[in-house]
Specification:
12 strands, 11 helices, nine-stranded mixed β-sheet, three-stranded antiparallel β-sheet, TIM Barrel, alpha/beta, about 30% helix
C-alpha cells in the first residue's frame, strides 16, 4: 500500500492547480455525482498499440484487425499536444495500455518532456525489445519514475506459457542493463519493479523469483494472481487455495471473444475508471478505460476536443449516473460499459 502512494509524492504534484483539483476530487468522492466537478487525476496514454508478444489474456495477443484500431506509435508531437491538456491535473501518467512502450523510439523524449512539465511517468514492459545502449542511456536520463517489469517465472518453460513468443533471458538482460546504467549515472530512477503473474505452472517459483529480483537489484517485487482462458472461459489462479477459480470477466473486453450480450446485474461498487481515470489511444482519441481496445469503443479526440468537454460528455454522465446508482438506464452510457462486470 505504501509503495502505491509513494508514486504520487514528488515536487511536480505540488503545483497549486494540481492540489486544488485533487482536493475537488477527494471532496467529490464523499458525494459523487454524474457531472464531475474536477478533472481526472490519473491518466493512461497508449504510446503504441504494438507488441512483439502474444500474451494469452491480452487483446494484442488476440489481435482482430477488423475490430481493433490500426497499429501505430504515438509521436512526440502528438504527445506534446496532449500533455498540454493534462499537465495541470495529472498526478501520474502511465505510458502503456495494450502495447509495449519500449518499441516507441521516442519514448525517452516523451518521458523527458512530461518530466519537465511536472508530470511523473511509469511504464509496464515485458522487456522483450532489442534495446541499444544509447536508448537505455536516454531512458535512464529521461526522468522516468518506474518500470514495472512483467517477468512471470524463472525458467523459459514456465515464462512462455503466458508470455507467448517471449524470451526470459532477453527480459532479464534488459533489466540488468537498465539497472547497470542507472547505477553508472548515480540515479535512483527509474525504479525497477519485478512483477510476476502467478499461475498453476509457476506458483512454486515465487520465492525463487523474489530472490532473483533481490540479487539483481530490483527495487520492488510483486506476485499477483494471473488470469487465463481455459475451455473458453476466464479463470484466475487462486494463490491461497492453489487452484483455478472462475473469473468474473467478459472475454470480449480483452478481444478474446466477439461482443457479448449486455450485462444485467449492476456491480455493487462504482467503477473507478469513470470517476478518476482518463485513457488516450496512440492517435489522441479518448477511451473510457484501459480495456477499450475496439475501434468503435474510442470516442472524441483530445487533440480536438477540450478535456473538460469529454470528461463530462453526455455518455460519461450517463455511465457515471448508472454506476453510482443515480438512475437505472444502463444502455445510455458507453457501449463497452454494458458488458463490464465492474459496471
Amino acid at each position: 500500500m505504501l509503495e502505491h502512494y509513494r508514486d504520487y509524492f514528488w515536487w511536480g504534484n505540488l503545483r497549486p492547480c494540481k492540489i486544488l483539483n485533487a482536493l475537488r476530487y477527494l471532496a467529490a468522492k464523499r458525494r459523487p455525482a454524474a457531472a464531475a466537478p474536477y478533472l481526472p487525476p490519473f491518466y493512461m496514454f497508449e504510446t503504441g498499440n504494438v507488441c512483439q508478444l502474444s500474451c494469452a489474456f491480452c487483446s494484442q495477443g488476440n489481435f482482430r484487425p477488423d475490430e481493433q484500431p490500426q497499429r501505430r506509435l504515438m509521436s512526440l508531437a502528438t504527445f506534446e499536444a496532449l500533455l498540454h491538456r493534462i499537465r495541470d491535473s495529472a498526478l501520474i501518467l502511465d505510458l502503456f495500455k495494450h502495447g509495449e512502450p519500449l518499441l516507441n523510439p521516442e519514448l525517452p523524449e516523451i518521458v523527458a518532456l512530461a518530466y519537465r512539465e511536472g508530470v511523473r511517468c511509469r511504464i509496464n514492459s515485458s522487456l522483450n525489445a532489442r534495446l541499444t545502449p544509447g536508448f537505455v542511456d536516454r531512458l535512464c536520463r529521461s526522468g522516468l519514475y518506474k518500470i514495472i517489469c512483467a517477468i512471470d517465472g524463472v525458467t523459459q518453460e514456465s515464462y512462455q506459457r503466458y508470455r507467448r513468443d517471449g524470451n526470459l533471458r532477453l527480459a532479464l538482460d534488459n533489466a540488468a542493463r537498465i539497472l547497470h546504467q542507472r547505477s553508472a549515472l548515480g540515479r535512483r530512477h527509474p525504479r525497477m519493479a519485478f512483477r510476476m503473474l502467478v499461475f498453476e505452472w509457476n506458483h512454486h517459483q515465487v520465492e525463487d523469483a523474489r530472490l532473483l529480483a533481490k540479487q539483481m537489484g530490483f527495487d520492488e517485487f510483486r506476485a499477483d494472481e494471473g488470469m487465463f482462458v481455459m475451455d473458453g472461459r476466464p479463470v484466475r489462479w487462486n494463490r491461497k487455495a492453489r487452484r483455478w477459480s472462475e473469473a468474473v470477466w467478459p472475454l470480449a473486453s480483452v478481444g478474446i471473444a466477439p461482443n457479448e450480450p449486455a450485462g444485467t446485474t449492476k456491480s455493487p461498487q462504482p467503477c473507478p475508471s469513470l470517476l478518476s481515470h482518463f485513457v488516450v489511444h496512440a492517435d489522441g482519441r479518448a477511451a473510457v478505460c484501459c480495456h477499450s481496445h475496439r475501434e468503435d469503443w474510442l470516442h472524441e479526440s483530445l487533440l480536438e476536443t477540450p478535456l473538460e468537454t469529454i470528461w463530462n460528455s453526455p455518455r460519461y454522465r450517463a455511465s457515471r449516473a448508472y454506476t453510482l446508482g443515480i438512475h437505472s438506464a444502463r444502455d445510455d452510457g458507453f457501449p463497452q460499459c454494458r458488458q463490464c462486470p465492474w459496471f
